[in-house]
């Protein structure tokens, strides 16, 4: 691991693991506060949508740890969410909200009778016991979306797609290893063996987590620098906007030209058939987001949806939002509350993964010393 942490993440990234670790040390406490705010801790979704790809998803994860505690009475929602919930109640019986999303990178659930609101802080992502053939089938289908039928430059976009998925998978594995159930004590805590087996023994998986960290952070930097955060109504929590800015600011210190040095999205989708390549990329990632409705474990599905929506939003911001002028056409490039909440929580997941990797590194060194 020692040499590894000094390595430059990626030729195009130009930033080391160590630099990201230091940045994350500054960002982590700020993210802790932000994700506990009412605006960011509540996620709206349809938890019971039919799997669109295959039948036989009736198998349920019966563990208590697979369950999600939903906020059943919308009147119990924090005040900031009341207007949306009440408006939704009135509209549900009328025309369903049109899914504007065919141009988006992920499918976002419409508000309907099955809509639920979930407090993410009360339903943490951790070990649930979900596994075996069922979860294997899901991951297999997700990776199979990596099959592109692209033109000449397919390697770059295909490689990027694969790394993003692998980084998401590795981040989920890191969380479940960090919050693993000890059957003796019935407590959740770090399990080094699980981490090494799932992530630590695979440098490429760790690398992909860091790459996703940069990807999502860059999307947040772009939203901030284009002034899009000003478009959000944080109700009486205007300070939240400042907290968010304050969290993003230190990442500018990484280099004079952070936007260039972190991850160069401009190197992708440059071939002569870029339009088709991007369409296919978009379609494939949309399918990944739809596969989340096939996940049998509710808690895993919840966090799977949060994260695919978060990555989908990051892709939309980085690849489709070109300049501030376009933002004035909100119907084309609107970023909804759900998308911003998913983006911020996905960054929180990655930031926690980076912190956990550091902690597992220490545990690993201690275990080696003992041997
Ligand atoms: P899996 O993690 O299922 O991996 C299957 C195969 O994929 C491996 O054998 C390996 O060949 C390959 N692989 C593994 N990791 C990577 C990687 N990073 N990059 C590339 N290839 C890889 N379980 C929980 O306990 N809590 C959760 O919150 C949770 N959320 C989930 C969310 C989703 C969307 C899905 C599909 C599953 C989730 N699971 C969760 C289940 C968990 O991800 C594993 O599937 C389960 O623990 C079984 O693990 P496994 O060892 O069989 O390997």
From TrEMBL:
> Could you give one GO CC term from the UniProt record?
endoplasmic reticulum membrane
The alphabetized UniProt keywords are: Disulfide bond, Electron transport, Endoplasmic reticulum, FAD, Flavoprotein, Glycoprotein, Membrane, Oxidoreductase, Redox-active center, Signal, Transport
Q: What coarse category fits the chief subcellular location reported for this protein?
A: endoplasmic reticulum
Tell me where in or outside the cell this protein is found: Endoplasmic reticulum membrane
Residues holding FAD: 126, 128, 139, 166, 169, 198
Disulfide bonding pattern of the chain: 61-66, 297-300
Kindly list the biological process annotations in GO that this record carries. protein folding in endoplasmic reticulum
One Gene Ontology molecular-function label: thiol oxidase activity
Membrane topology (UniProt) = Peripheral membrane protein
Q: Where is the active site?
A: 297, 300
Q: Which cofactor does it need?
A: FAD
Please report which protein family the annotation says this sequence is part of. Belongs to the EROs family.
Q: Which proteins does it associate with, and in what oligomeric form?
A: May function both as a monomer and a homodimer.
Q: What is this protein called?
A: Uncharacterized protein
Starting at the broadest rank, the lineage of the source organism is:
Eukaryota, Fungi, Dikarya, Ascomycota, Saccharomycotina
- The shown residues of the full protein are 59 to 429 of 556
């Amino acid at each position: 691991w020692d040499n590894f942490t000094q390595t430059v993440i990626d030729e195009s990234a130009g930033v080391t693991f160590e630099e990201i670790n230091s940045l994350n040390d500054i960002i982590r406490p700020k993210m802790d506060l932000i994700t506990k705010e009412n605006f960011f801790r509540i996620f709206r979704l349809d938890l019971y949508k039919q799997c669109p790809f295959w039948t036989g998803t009736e198998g349920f994860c019966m563990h208590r740890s697979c369950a999600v505690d939903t906020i059943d009475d919308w009147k119990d929602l924090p005040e900031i969410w009341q207007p949306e919930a009440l408006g939704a109640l009135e509209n549900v019986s009328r025309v369903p909200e049109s899914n504007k999303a065919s141009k988006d990178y992920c499918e976002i659930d419409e508000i309907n009778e099955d809509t639920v609101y979930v407090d993410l802080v009360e339903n943490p992502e951790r070990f649930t016991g979900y596994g075996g053939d069922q979860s294997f089938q899901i991951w297999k289908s997700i990776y199979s979306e990596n099959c592109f039928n692209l033109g000449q430059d397919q390697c770059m976009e295909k490689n990027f797609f694969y790394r993003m998925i692998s980084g998401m998978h590795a981040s989920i594995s890191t969380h479940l290893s960090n919050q693993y159930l000890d059957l003796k004590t019935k407590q959740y805590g770090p399990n080094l063996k699980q981490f090494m087996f799932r992530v630590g023994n695979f440098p490429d998986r760790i690398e992909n987590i860091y790459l996703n960290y940069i990807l999502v952070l860059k999307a947040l930097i772009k939203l901030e620098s284009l002034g899009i955060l000003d478009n959000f109504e944080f109700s009486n929590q205007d300070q939240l906007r400042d907290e968010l800015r304050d969290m993003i600011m230190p990442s500018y210190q990484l280099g004079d030209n952070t936007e260039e040095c972190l991850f160069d999205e401009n190197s992708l989708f440059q071939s002569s058939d870029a339009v088709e390549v991007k369409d296919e990329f978009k379609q494939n990632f949309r399918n990944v987001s739809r596969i989340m409705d096939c996940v049998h474990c509710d808690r895993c599905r919840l966090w799977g949806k949060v994260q695919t929506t978060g990555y989908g939003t990051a892709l939309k911001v980085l690849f489709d939002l070109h300049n501030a002028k376009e933002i004035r056409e909100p119907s084309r490039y609107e970023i909804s509350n759900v998308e911003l909440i998913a983006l911020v929580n996905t960054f929180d997941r990655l930031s926690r993964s980076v912190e956990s990797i550091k902690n597992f590194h220490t545990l690993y060194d201690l275990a080696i010393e003992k041997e």
